[in-house]
Write a structure and sequence with these properties.
alpha/beta; seven-stranded mixed sheet; 15 strands; about 20% helix
Length: about 260
């Protein structure tokens, strides 16, 4: 896993929902190396541990990365105070394994839950009209990236827990309906573990390949601290993989969840 640490300029920054921020960073050699599904590790002033944030967009021609993150604590609050024109300290691209992108004419279902939606945008842009994107949020105030997803050409289904935007219900309900209509070639998902567990079960029942991006607390982000251990199975044997180094993307059949 090759990565770079450095200070890079923020070329745009805006709030897109309550405590959710969208930044574009100019870092040409990192953008050139990055792949869909990887993440960056960002240093916030005054904090020892970096904050891992999924990559929401990669523009190799412009040499930029786009990230979208939610304020969840003091560290991400400090990051949210950075402004356009300032330098940001990042280590990237991180993640030993990103998403597997099939040929663009294959059919894909792409599912994001909450802040698990940003890394799904590049996948939607890859498949375009051959993709169905299912986005889930708590309520209307938490909804993000719907215009971006629609601009990809994909069919977009918005779900909220309370029905205040889109349809009322969970992404797994929408997935069940999609799977009844047409069997896709692959399912991608990122979000809470309870959501991923159900999606993996649905994919298995339907005989569809599935890849999931796991969300775990991290320390170093490069496989040294072993904080982000997750239970997986390979060749019939259970072992602990590390989300930062062995993932963050895993084949669905590899992932084990605690009951």
């Amino acid at each position: 896993m090759k990565y770079t640490q450095g200070l890079y300029p923020i070329i745009s920054k805006k709030a897109i929902a309550a405590e959710v921020y969208d930044m574009t960073i100019r870092c040409p050699h990192i953008a050139k190396a990055a792949v869909c599904g990887q993440f960056v590790n960002i240093k916030a002033d005054g904090f020892m541990l970096r904050r891992p944030i999924s990559i929401c967009g990669i523009d190799k021609e412009k040499g930029t990365l786009r990230i979208v993150f939610e304020v969840r604590g003091k560290g991400t609050k400090a990051l949210s105070r950075l402004s356009e024109g300032q330098l940001i300290d990042i280590v990237a691209p991180l993640g030993g394994r990103g998403f597997t992108l099939l040929e663009k004419d294959k059919k894909a279902v792409i599912i994001g839950g909450g802040i698990g939606n940003p890394p799904m945008l590049p996948i939607a842009e890859h498949y375009g009209s051959n993709a169905v994107v299912i986005s889930g949020f708590r309520n209307a105030s938490a909804v993000i990236l719907q215009k971006d997803l629609a601009a990809s050409g994909a069919e977009v289904i918005l779900c909220t827990d309370d029905g205040s935007a889109g349809r009322k219900g969970f992404v797994t309900d929408a997935l069940a309906e999609v799977l009844k209509k047409e069997k896709p070639d692959i399912i991608y998902a990122c979000g809470p573990s309870v959501m991923l567990k159900r999606i993996i079960s649905q994919a298995k029942e339907s005989g569809v390949k599935c890849e999931v991006s796991l969300e775990e607390r991290m320390g170093c982000g490069v496989g040294g601290c072993l904080v982000c251990a997750c239970r997986t199975i390979r060749d019939g044997e259970e072992y602990y993989a590390h989300v930062c180094k062995d993932g963050p993307v895993f084949d669905a059949e590899e992932v084990l969840f605690d009951d």
